[in-house]
């Protein structure tokens, strides 16, 4: 499981695994084959539904050997200080130590020949790359199988496993698009190693976002008990259809407080189908860095807040660049759908067919326009990491004194070759460097630091402090209460920050 408090996420793994035997299981008929659906309202009991679907829910355990970082023995350090040699065998034992780690979670069988759906974070390597060494699947009749990882998708947090068996109980996908807030649901899994645990609740919310970004930040929220070890387990509707995969929770304690989250079947099934075919899941891609239009950015651009997203970067030779999109453009709709916190650009584009041509409604310099874009294929996470690179957030210790922009609460100076080297800036970066930040100013509150580089203000590139001051004065004359800065730190991608200027 992944645990979230605010926007923080952590894997929910743990407990001592054991499983509870159930009655006879079916063979070639789905465990959730059609049957009489309970009348609307609270059912008298979930027992019949649990009996039908529980045999298709499995426990998943993994093992992996990881290297243990060598710790210095205090006695060894003392001996070294006095020149006493440390035996080579002891050194080798300390440097070559490893330990076994693992995880416990849940999954469900989707075919009689042993295909199993679960979460990727259960089978991903301990260091975030690769996979675990062993995966064991335990059925409700206590039979254990060694499982192969057929495919996995870290972005969706989904994985497909396969065990060598036949005539297994299995369940089918349901249609999560028909789910409604208030519908009853059933969750079955392996919380804290307590295999075959059933909990019930209702759908508390649909399309729940917890990070604000990404193609899969849309969960089904439930008040059913979801705990460590429920990862990868199914969420059933009252007809016995799988409408979600229990994957995360929001909690200040790491245990259930009534806010569990499941990946909707509508998002999970296409990914699992692609993995089963041996294909890479297709996701639309523009090749842009995005920021939500918060209150300060909206004020600086004269736009309503929480409507649209601003392009902070546009990658060369990708779909957006080929269509003529520019840094600072605000995308307000994708293929006719308004962009807002519930319908983000990344979500809308990722779920658009690769190669399709769609209209984007864009605001550029206050003018509304429509741009036609051919949607590209999203690169792998490794390729994206290489494209974005890593940022160096260390500012130089000494910088040349410079005139101050009182309106922004910043001291500014032109970029010299010496400053560019000290800030680890890429060649050709033009702008003004922040030499001091007023602790009482809004810029400090927004996170601007000494050593940051202001590349542009209100969409206009700057290279001298005087240009920044002039842009602030122009914004005031236009009645703006804030200005939009394009800021870069080290080799990190640049981003937009709205800074209040109304207090001067």
UniProtKB/TrEMBL annotation:
Comp. bias regions, Low complexity: 396-407
Enzyme class: hydrolase
Signal sequence bounds: 1-21
Major subcellular location class: periplasm
Pfam family of the protein (one): PDZ_2
Active-site annotation: 121, 157, 231
Reactions that this protein is recorded to catalyse: Acts on substrates that are at least partially unfolded. The cleavage site P1 residue is normally between a pair of hydrophobic residues, such as Val-|-Val
E.C. number(s) listed in UniProt: 3.4.21.107
Name of protein: Probable periplasmic serine endoprotease DegP-like
Organism: Sphingomonas sabuli
